[in-house]
């Protein structure tokens, strides 16, 4: 178990990720920072979701990503060998992990398609529809980063939606 305060890092770029992390409390984000210092949020995670840098974990290479807490959080960290041992000894757990990975692949595929084919307003409305249960917990600037739009654009979209 690990407790994180709001804005505290679970992973920093350059570190090698060694865990599978299950969020039991709070909201987190995974993001990269480009050469201009702009954050690009790749993923949000909330209670009962997994978070981590799979590439760094599997290849044991320095991470290109950061993970930090948007709210005070609690996570359960599994080392790679312990996670594999649990998967091998508990078939239901292994099946659950497989289902989560499959669902994650589909979500990422749909996010890429949405990112290249939908307007900023459509992306925002999709986000609200898919993540209504926690969208209000995330600052608007972070949602804009996740959607790949400027905060000012998101503000205009939100104002336009309220006027409709």
Descriptors:
alpha+beta; 4-stranded antiparallel β-sheet; about 45% helix; about 160 residues
Structure report:
- The chain has 164 residues and is α+β, with helices and mostly antiparallel strands.
- It is 46% helix and 25% strand.
- It has helices at residues 54-59, 80-89, 91-117, 120-130, 140-147, 151-163, and strands spanning 2-4, 9-11, 19-25, 27-33, 39-46, 50-51, 66-69, 73-79.
- The strands form two sheets. It has a four-stranded antiparallel sheet. A four-stranded antiparallel sheet has the order 2-7-4-5.
Q: What's the short version?
A:
The chain has 164 residues and is an alpha+beta fold. Helices cover 46% and strands 25% of the residues.
Parts with pLDDT < 50 across at least 5 consecutive residues: none
Q: Provide the residue-averaged pLDDT.
A: 93
Largest sheet: 4 strands, antiparallel
**Order of adjacent strands in the largest pleated sheet:** 1-8-3-6
- Provide the helix percentage: 40-55%
General form: globular
The N- and C-terminal alpha carbons lie at a distance of 46 Å
Instruction: Provide the gyration radius in Å.
Output: 17 Å
Q: What series of H and E elements makes up the topology?
A: EEEEEEHEEHHHHH
Structural class: alpha+beta
Number of strands: 8
Report strand %: 25-35%
Count the DSSP helices.
Answer: 6
